[in-house]
Amino acid sequence: MKHLVLIAFIFLTSCAQKGQVPTSLQREPTLQPNPMVLELNELQPLDGPVMTVGVYEFSDKTGQRKPADNIANLSSAVTQGAEAWVIDALLQAGNGTWFEVVERVGMDHVIKERQLIRNTRDNYEKENATPLKPMKFAGLLVEGGIVGYDSNIETGGNGAMYLGIGTAVEYRVDTVTVAMRLVSVSTGRVLISVATEKTIASYRQGANAFKFFDLGTEALEIETGYSVNEPTNYAVRQAIESAVIEVIIQGEKQGLWKFKKDKTSSS
After folding, report:
1. Distances in Å between the alpha carbon of 150 and those of 63, 98, 144, 192, 194?
2. pLDDT category, 265, cuts 50, 70, 90?
3. N or C end of the chain: smaller count of CB under 10 Å?
4. How many Å apart are CA 198 and CA 41, to the nearest integer?
5. Is the pTM of this model over 0.90?
6. Could you tell me if 142 and 58 are in contact, meaning their C-beta atoms sit under 8 angstroms apart?
7. Dihedral angle at the C-alpha atoms of 116, 118, 123, 124, nearest 10 degrees?
8. 179, 143 in Cβ contact below 8 A?
């Protein structure tokens, strides 16, 4: 019987090796890559001048909280600062040949800093104060937000146990939905509206052994396991970048702009 326990312990230990994560927790901060950086950079350049775009906010409109069992979780399910990913995706499009993004999220800070510069110049340069250049305005606005977060749209798993020893595998799929629209500042007309969806996969595997010895006077219980959860922030960013790509493609189809043709293709 003890040999059986030893075999079970070795089996469970080998299953748990994938779940050993202390070294990963000690990693130094790293630069987070764009999920779709290749797709963004490989977009054909714009045939015309770079378009100036403003992004005021790209908020979470779902109101969803992080899934939790038996507790009231106050943490939001998705990021509250998604406009950072929108701005980054716009700047990456076509290796920076499509959009010039002007600061609007921190507009108050820009105005305060400009006022500080103006006051300082007036105090020290007097009538010879150097005037500030006018702020650049945007001809287009990117609006929208995270409009959907659905949990447990697909769940499943399998397991088996024999003589108190067994394994189990479970998985869960969530989805996040992003809506984005391009608005003309001069007319207020919505030029393009798109929506993208990204799945978020979670996976858990575990093993356990439960056995009684000596006529029920002694009990042995061993459990081990690990889980893998796709980062929600990564999924949101990928959905946003996909939306930016779709906006560019839809605009070309509607004749709002044109892709610059390669010399090789034109010849």
Report:
1. 11, 33, 18, 25, 19
2. very low
3. C
4. 20
5. no
6. yes
7. 100
8. no
